[in-house]
TrEMBL record:
Keywords: Membrane, Transmembrane, Transmembrane helix. This is Metallo-beta-lactamase domain-containing protein. The keyword Ligase does not apply. Residues 44-215 form the Metallo-beta-lactamase domain. It comes from the Bacteria. The chain crosses the membrane at residues 7-26. Pfam families: Lactamase_B.
Length: 284
């Protein structure tokens, strides 16, 4: 009798695992040919998970802590322990703190990082983990194209030169994710000076459906000139509730409203996910 009960228990577990696998395959089938971009709810910081139509995965920043692992478990299957590309936009702890844990948990093929240098213990820990990972390292520079397959790619817009000793925000990696006729502007913590410089370099690479508001909605970013040329349908504030910086600044919130741009907020809305079919972008 006891053996029979054990066999039934194993059978139930097998059936549950099969059901989970079927569910996940069905979910992937639903997103076949789609680009999925999730602005993760990791508190005060940035972390963006991208799944290309090809299935390739990119993680841009990892927030300040292990909370990124919790959020990744919600957008990735439980058995997936690899990420194709990780992009730490700059050395600030609210962008790379969680990447120390990501590198420990996941196999990463390529790390694309700015040449800007940090001087914190977090940055030192990240560099040690990156060395242990033995991933391919690429220094980000304007003009690089990261092919994600299936027609999706990342354009590196900034920095446009080696910037080891500039302010970390000035040297952060600004990228534009493109799929078909749609695009996402991922502007890290770039201040207005960098935004306006990007406008001066050429406006053809700015228009985007979704804008991650620079520097968590700080008043030092999201200049009127930049918003006008990006002309997004949606914006996202990636920030923690009751953060000590007052992000997003009220004047920035009002500016998005003046431009008629609906803004989502990871504090209020949790993880914010968009799906593109190459023609339109919708919030999932």
């Amino acid at each position: 009798m006891q053996k029979s009960v054990q066999i039934k228990g194993v059978a139930i577990v097998v059936l549950l695992l099969a059901a989970i696998c079927i569910w996940y395959v069905a979910m992937r089938e639903d997103h076949r040919g789609s680009l999925t971009v999730s602005f993760l709810n990791i508190g005060q910081g940035d972390s963006i998970f991208i799944q290309a139509p090809s299935g390739r995965q990119v993680l841009i920043d990892g927030g300040p802590s292990t909370s990124v692992l919790r959020e990744l478990s919600r957008v990735m299957p439980w058995y997936d322990r690899s990420i194709d590309v990780v992009i730490p936009t700059h050395p600030d702890a609210d962008h790379i703190g969680g990447l120390v844990d990501v590198l420990a948990r996941y196999k990463v093929d390529t790390v694309i990082h700015s040449s800007v240098e940090g001087d914190t213990k977090t940055f030192a820990a990240f560099n040690r983990m990156m060395a242990d990972e033995h991933a391919q390292e690429v220094v980000a520079i304007r003009g690089q194209i990261v092919d994600l397959g299936g027609g999706a790619y990342l354009q590196i817009l900034s920095p446009d030169r080696s910037v080891p000793h500039v302010d970390t925000n000035d040297g952060c990696v600004v990228a534009r994710l493109v799929y078909g006729a749609t695009a996402f502007m991922l502007s890290c913590d770039a201040p207005r000076s960098i935004e306006n410089y990007l406008v001066a370099l050429g406006t053809s690479t700015l228009k985007s459906n979704v804008l991650k508001a620079g520097h968590h909605g700080s008043k030092t970013s999201s200049s009127p000139l930049f918003l006008g040329y990006v002309a997004p349908e949606y914006a996202v504030f990636s920030r923690g509730c009751d953060n000590k910086y007052g992000h997003p600044a009220q004047e920035t919130v009002e500016r998005f409203a003046q431009f008629g741009i609906p803004a989502f907020d990871t504090c209020k809305d949790g993880t914010v996910t968009f799906v593109s079919d190459g023609q339109t972008v919708v919030r999932e």
